[in-house]
Recover the amino acids of this structure.
């Protein structure tokens, strides 16, 4: 025992010295890896306490050596075990998604609606920075740079849901913001809600199979695309040559409905292929067509409208109905594109903007394929309900030049199917034989939910009656085509246009978050008869009102194509700028009916004022672009003008 103690006394300083060297070396190594410290254990040993014979020294070395070897073995084993544990953990993590997916499949199997919604989307990704600024007057801009045209079948993006750990979720039984309808107004509302309430959880329910998309290109640019796969990609070249998708946002913009409750920063989810069939307004909840119930804090009805049909077709035999297209949705575009490639003759019934646009689009195609395109309507000229007669006549000539056989003052008496053709019999005895009909005869606002919700429908304009803040009842707002609203400037109205859907959707969204703002921003609408002729309009444009028109000769720059090229935008309502106008001389006195020969030049471009009680309530800018803010201001001011030629000078139509 004594011997041991004395050996330890001799060994201890040595061991301390040795460990000091190690620490110093370690420190040096740590500070300068390039310099390898010189180990001089002998020198260290020599600095240690003296004494002991050669045998004792040998013993010290043996003991120190054993200690080092033991420590080495320990370190090796620890590292090896750590490595094994690490590998086990990696394997376990790697197998988690399969396990979770299997578990999720078992859990979700009895609930088909949940399965369908899980399939929908790729990686949850909210883009709060993409939201418009609060109160920003510009319309919600569709994402022009959307990298892919998303669809229900879109593959999840790399790094998306497939790579994350799947956690089973159900559809939310409650959502703070419920938007019924997946169209333009709902999408605009979702954006403005998120702009004012960045963590908001917004659920859009739509009975269409698609994510929110814009409808205007369905009757315009998509028909002029050179891409043979345009019906699949739904990407198209705008008049300005830039390519974009008709979807407002790619799939990755949205989160899945099942994740809405748990997403840290909230988000916008779209439940596709589901219809709201009942509203319990007092209980703040709705029922879907699969009996799912969802309660809400605030609800927007943005159900748009359903294309009207002619009664004679509605009552006709199946042979007639199956050869008739009512044009509104993506699927209508796809089927009309296909049908029109396989027939000899097509007839468009309706002379409004939709009928005229489709006639021009198909007419152009007829030049290549020999397809006969007929357009018929009760008015005297194209867009006769909107344009003053002289301009409507001019437009009719333009449509004819596009290869369309136009039949004016045509009232359809019956449609039958005979000898493999449809026969359209007109009331004045004229007959047209054709293969297919497109009925573009207006829209019925979709008010299916009025009864269960106890909401008032406007007897004159149709649509849900709402106040100036677009509210129908407590916690319920209505926007877009379905809303009959009180315009604080122009009175009660219902508007069926893209920009109105954007403006009213945005306002409803703001008011759902407590803004309490009235409808004040006049929306505009536009129509293009192909890339060469187009107009933009604002306010009440009804050809039964007195009008005053001021025109100038158009140049090559005065076309929708040139305008979008210049502004760099595709959707016209996005191109609005706050331009101010300089004074210029008006070109002509108000609206004398010029001779047909003169019309061609005189109506190249111009401004048409619509008057009610001598006040301008509507303005059309004919082949005049990017001047909408001026028109908006004139309507907003609501003043009587002694000389509208002076007012027309604000639009600079002679300057370009
Ligand atoms: C081919 C075409 C071209 C157009 N071109 C122009 C143009 O050039 N300029 C212009 O200003 N305007 C144009 N418009 C009009 C414009 O697109 C509409 O005014 C606009 O889409 C209206 O938007 P919204 O959101 O009110 O309705 P919609 O876009 O119709 O959306 C309503 C959605 O709600 C869904 N829905 C309805 N009921 C339910 C329910 N109970 N449950 C769930 N979902 C439901 C519908 O299926 C639909 O998807 C065009 C329209 C069409 C069809």
């Amino acid at each position: 025992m004594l011997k041991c103690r004395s050996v330890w006394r001799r060994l201890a300083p040595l061991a301390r010295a040795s460990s000091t060297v190690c620490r110093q070396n370690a420190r040096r190594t740590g500070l300068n890896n390039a310099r390898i410290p010189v180990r001089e254990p002998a020198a260290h040993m020599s600095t240690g306490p003296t004494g002991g014979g050669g045998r004792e020294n040998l013993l010290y070395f043996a003991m120190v050596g054993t200690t080092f070897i033991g420590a080495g073995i320990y370190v090796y084993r620890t590292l090896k075990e750590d490595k094994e544990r690490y590998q086990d953990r990696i394997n376990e993590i790697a197998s988690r998604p399969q396990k979770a997916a299997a578990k999720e499949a078992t859990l979700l199997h009895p609930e088909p609606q949940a399965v369908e919604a899980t399939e929908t989307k790729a990686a949850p990704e909210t883009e709060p920075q993409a939201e418009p600024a609060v109160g920003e007057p510009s319309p919600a801009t569709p994402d022009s740079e959307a990298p892919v045209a998303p669809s229900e079948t879109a593959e999840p993006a790399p790094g998306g849901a497939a790579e994350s750990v799947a956690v089973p979720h159900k559809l939310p039984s409650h959502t703070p913001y419920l938007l019924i309808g997946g169209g333009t107004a709902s999408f605009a509302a979702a954006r403005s809600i998120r702009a004012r309430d960045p963590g908001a959880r917004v659920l859009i329910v739509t009975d269409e199979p698609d994510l929110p998309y814009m409808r205007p290109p369905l009757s315009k640019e998509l028909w002029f695309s050179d891409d043979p796969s345009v019906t699949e990609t739904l990407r198209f070249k705008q008049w300005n040559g830039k390519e974009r998708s008709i979807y407002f946002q790619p799939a990755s913009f949205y989160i899945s409905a099942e994740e809405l409750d748990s997403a840290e920063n909230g988000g916008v989810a779209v439940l596709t292929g589901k219809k709201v069939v009942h509203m319990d307004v007092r209980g703040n909840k709705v029922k879907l067509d699969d009996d799912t119930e969802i309660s809400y804090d605030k609800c927007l009805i943005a159900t748009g409208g359903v294309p009207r049909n002619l009664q004679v077709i509605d009552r006709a035999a199946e042979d007639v109905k199956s050869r008739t297209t009512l044009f509104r949705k993506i699927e209508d575009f796809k089927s009309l594109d296909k049908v029109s490639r396989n027939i000899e003759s097509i007839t468009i019934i309706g002379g409004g903007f939709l009928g005229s646009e489709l006639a021009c689009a198909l007419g152009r195609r007829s030049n290549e394929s020999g397809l006969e395109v007929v357009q018929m309507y009760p008015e005297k000229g194209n867009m006769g309900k909107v344009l003053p007669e002289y301009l409507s006549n001019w437009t009719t000539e333009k449509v004819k030049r596009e290869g369309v056989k136009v039949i004016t003052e045509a009232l359809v008496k019956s449609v039958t199917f005979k000898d493999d053709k449809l026969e359209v019999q007109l009331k004045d005895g004229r007959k047209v034989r054709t293969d297919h009909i497109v009925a573009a005869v207006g829209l019925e606002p979709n008010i299916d939910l009025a009864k269960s919700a106890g909401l008032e429908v406007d007897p004159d304009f149709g649509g849900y009656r709402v106040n100036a803040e677009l509210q129908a009842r407590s916690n319920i707002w209505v926007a877009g085509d379905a809303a009959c609203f009180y315009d604080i400037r122009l009175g009660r109205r219902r508007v069926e246009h893209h920009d109105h859907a954007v403006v009213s959707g945005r306002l409803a969204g703001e008011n759902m978050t407590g803004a309490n703002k009235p409808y004040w921003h006049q929306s505009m609408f536009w129509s293009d008869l192909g890339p060469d002729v187009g107009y933009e309009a604002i306010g009440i444009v009804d050809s039964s009102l007195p009008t005053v028109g001021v025109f100038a000769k158009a140049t090559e720059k005065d076309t929708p194509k040139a305008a979008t090229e210049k502004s760099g935008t595709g959707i016209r309502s996005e191109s609005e700028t706050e331009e101010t106008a300089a004074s210029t001389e008006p070109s002509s006195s108000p609206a004398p009916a010029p001779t047909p020969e003169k019309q061609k030049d005189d109506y190249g471009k111009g401004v048409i004022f619509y008057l009610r009680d001598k006040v301008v309530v509507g303005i059309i800018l004919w082949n005049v672009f990017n001047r909408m803010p001026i028109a908006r201001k004139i309507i907003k001011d609501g003043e009587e003008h002694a000389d509208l030629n002076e007012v027309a000078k604000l639009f600079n139509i002679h300057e370009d």
User: Anything to note?
Assistant: The pocket of flavin-adenine dinucleotide is lined by residues 180-186, 205-208, 215-216, 218-219, 275-276, 302-305, 327-328, 354, 446, 448, 480-482, 496-499, 501, 525-527 (CB under 6 Å).
